[in-house]
Amino acid sequence: MEPLGGGGPAGAPEIFAGGIGARGSVRRAVVIGNGCAGAENQCLGLLRALGLADRLTLYRAIRPTGGINKWLHFLPISLHKLVDQVLRQMFSSNKFATLFQGAKMAQYTVCNGQSLGLSSVLEADTKRIVTMVNDTFEKEGLALVVACGRDTISYASSIRCLAPDNVFVIQIQHPRYRLDRFDLVVTPRHDYYALTTRGQREFPHLLWRWITAREPPGPNVLTVGALHQADSAALRTAASDWHDELANSPKPLVVVNIGGPTRNCNYDVGLAKKLISSLHNVLKTCGSVRISFSRRTPHKVSDLILKEFSTHPKVYIWNGEGPNPHLGHLAWADAFVITADSISMLSEACSTGKPVYVVGTEHCRWKFSDFHNRLHERGAVRPFTGLEDMSDNWSYPPLNDAIDVAARVPEVLAERGWTVG
Predict the structure, then answer these.
(1) Which of 11-15, 374-378, 383-387 has the lowest average pLDDT?
(2) CA 25 – CA 139 distance, rounded (Å)
(3) Is the domain defined by 2-62+105-224+402-415 classed in CATH 3.40.50?
(4) Looking at the DSSP assignment, which residues form a beta bridge with residue 187?
(5) Which residues of 205-234 are buried (b: 16+ CB within 10 A; e: fewer)?
(6) Whole-number Å distance between alpha carbons of 364 and 244
(7) Helix/strand/coil (H/E/C) assignment for every residue in 361-403
């Protein structure tokens, strides 16, 4: 895989064109998501950098939900759907039906504030997508297919197999084996952590095939963090949209983003207590503080922080109602304090070049730990200890992963004789 530098082009490349050679030009995109905001945001971020954000169709790989289905997520999505269908037919007319009753997927808001519920997207269907691409090829030309997440792998690889001349398939996040099923794989460096000397010491050799990418890097793309939509244009728009609310906030404005425990970064209220103590210590050097929670934040963590700061004159806590201030925070903040569990939030904050302090890295392990080490080596983050002067304005080369990947895509397309406008 080709490593990406910290720089990148000043602007995003043009990737669609009409007129002569239009059949060999990418002018539209298909996104295959998995219902997780973080994964789908990576696809949308890349397409935004490519100039295709307004020329996409969004499909979603939807697992059955509700009842017993929460224990079946270890199955491949196709097998999960088959099992669910069989169980529904077997138990649909008796008292056990509630065990297998699915529920609708809840709506969520992606980075640009657009609501994407089931009414806004199509359920992923390989044959339907291939038929659409083939039937519209003469008029619309090549389709760029971008997918992210484990549940999307089978869809993306099958589409490339069935329509290789009409699509260019990009898989974001490592598919674990057979990279040649895709035209391009975009994956963070920390997905290869297990191949490092330190990673090999952490797990027995017999478990490697289950926990790491088994193939060595090939002609694909390595990134530092997650792709996202918070580019300079989005932040300029957010700065304007949130001007009236945030422009006059006392400086420095410190934004605190709190995620939630994950398998590779597990913590409890102890981290919340540590964060509270550290925030109290630095409040004297803060002009104002704005705190936001994520969907994964445990209630016992958010309740503790609300109890401590809800009445503090310097602190504002977003209650989850009304417009999401996330982009406004990225645009107007002077510094960030972020819990270590969220690669997406850290990647977005580090794209601003502003000071980013991280709390809870000691709870991270495996490739999460490797990700934090890489950010630290770049000078993009510092540990949050409570001893900081939050007016200290240090900087670093911003992460530009989405723009860097977008610069690589036209090069790979050109190798196949396809134009990029």
Answers:
(1) 11-15
(2) 11
(3) yes
(4) 222
(5) eeeeeeebbebebeebbbbbbbbbbbbeeb
(6) 38
(7) HHHECHHHHHHHHHHHHCCCCEECCCCCCCCCCCCCCCCCHHH
Domain ranges of the chain: 2-62+105-224+402-415, 232-383
Question: Is the entire prediction scored with pTM above 0.85?
Answer: no
Out of 2.40.50.90, 1.10.150.120, 3.40.50.2000, 3.40.50.2300, select the CATH number for domain 232-383: 3.40.50.2000
Please give the pLDDT value at position 102: 47
What is the predicted pLDDT for the residue at 193?
66
How far, in Å, CA of 255 to CA of 242, rounded?
A: 14
Lowest pLDDT segment from 45-49, 106-110, 207-211, 226-230: 106-110
Q: Distance of CA 272 to CAs 62, 264, 300, 303, 307, Å?
A: 34, 18, 9, 10, 12
Cα–Cα nearest to 212, from 224, 200, 221: 200
The predicted-structure confidence for 52-66, as pLDDT tens digits, reads as follows: 988 899 999 887 777
Task: For residue 172, give the nearest of 271, 361, 349, 29 by alpha carbon.
Answer: 29
Type and span of the H or E element at 256: strand 253-258
Write down the pLDDT at residue 234.
95
Asked whether residue 118 carries a pLDDT value surpassing 90, the answer given is no
Q: How far is the C-alpha of 258 from the C-alpha of 390, rounded, in Å?
A: 18
HSE-up of 5 (CA within 13 Å, CB side)?
4
Please tell me which residue, 419 or 127, carries the higher pLDDT value.
127
What is the torsional sign of CA 319, 320, 322, 324? positive
The strands making up 184-188's β-sheet, listed across from edge to edge, are 2-3, 221-223, 184-188, 167-172, 142-148, 26-33, 56-60, 122-123
- Give the sign of the dihedral formed by CA 340, CA 69, CA 39, CA 187: positive
Of 28-42, 57-71, 256-270, the range with the lowest mean pLDDT is: 57-71
Task: List CB contacts of 108: < 8 A, sequence separation 6 or more.
Answer: 37, 115, 116, 117, 295
Residue 356 β-bridge partners: 336
φ/ψ bin of 366: left (φ > 0), alpha (ψ from -120 to 50), beta (otherwise): left
More confident residue, 177 or 240: 240
Q: Which residues contact 323 (CB under 8 A, 6 or more apart)?
A: 113
Section 243-272 average pLDDT: 93
The percent of residues in the chain predicted with pLDDT above 90, rounded, is 57
Whether the pLDDT of residue 14 is over 60: the answer is: no
Dist CA 276 CA 289 (whole Å) = 12
